[in-house]
Amino acid sequence: MDDRLIDDDRLSVERMSVLPGEGFFYPDSLQQQQAEREAVESLAGADVAVVADPDADGLACVSLVREARGEGALVPASPHKIADALAWVGEHGADTEVYVCDLCPDSESDLAPLAAATDQADSVTWYDHHQWDPDLATQVREAGVDLVVGESDEVCTADVALSELDAEFETTHEELVAVTRDHDLWLREDDRSDDLADYAHWADSEEFIETVREHGADLPDEIREMLAERRVKKDQLIEKAVQRARLRDIGPWTVGVTYGRCSQNEVAQALREQGADASVVVKPSGSASIRGTDAFERCHEVAAQVNGGGHPKAAGCKPGIYDDMLDYAHHWSTRGAVAKEAILEGFRRLADERE
Predict the structure, then answer these.
(1) Which of 53, 144, 169, 335 is the most buried (most CB within 10 A)?
(2) Which three-class secondary structure state does DSSP give residue 293?
(3) E strand or H helix that includes residue 297
(4) Contact predicate 103/82, CB 8 Å
(5) Same domain flag for 207 and 276
(6) Which helix (H) or strand (E) holds 130?
(7) Which range of residues forms the domain containing residue 277?
(8) How far is CA 225 from CA 175, 230, 234, in A?
């Protein structure tokens, strides 16, 4: 493929908003091989390892583990890659003290390699704050894992790590956790929380961890300047997604639904201001984010119907509707029409159950 075709720097904002980023066009098998190589390198000789979602909350947990334990090899894992990360720990993490942070299994298949991981590791501790299926939580604990799950509408995973790790943390670390919570729970009471979230998204994970370990939530001026520059295009993409949004009445709820490559939280906030009780942001990659309000706290129930999960007010999913590239071409050209309907059908089922 000609690199020019997926080069964001030459695309207009309109076209960039409709298409996925260049990473989408790399085969999963190649990404998988690279991720495994990096995990093997990280785990080699490590006494402590952290399997974490590489967002601001997960990476804050890594920084806390390193402060408490003096080290911690990072094995990044998205929610859909939990099984892979556990398998790598089982194969390469012998006698390692393992922490799993900010990840929640959606099914038993996510936990298939857990027994091997607990057999090889010196210990496995799991910190999270998502909505757990009770049977999966029992399965994890019966495998010998120390599982601690905080209340998803009160704390972020970094809160759990801060309280559970046996260490005396500096005030800067406690403040880092508070600001992380501000973004992760979408409280939006601290301006620094958006900086942390964007920096975690745009920076290399190790760079983020080392920066917050040194500076806490108060990022250096040069980083804040970089964020301001990158937010110009970010804000343009948010605007495109908001312009495409439509409000749908489903049962007792008004649901805002849109499509685009964008920052879903800011789009959801704009739709809330337009009267949406819940928002659905379908991405060009095929995944989607579901955001709620005090009027709708069942996002995780909608997501569970379409291959996902999460919190009552924030969840993610990826409908299983993509069989080949023609399906993706249809997805892009129709601005996610099939995915939108699959997710909205989840809202309709909840409305029917309510009646």
Answers:
(1) 53
(2) strand
(3) none
(4) yes
(5) no
(6) none
(7) 238-354
(8) 22, 9, 14
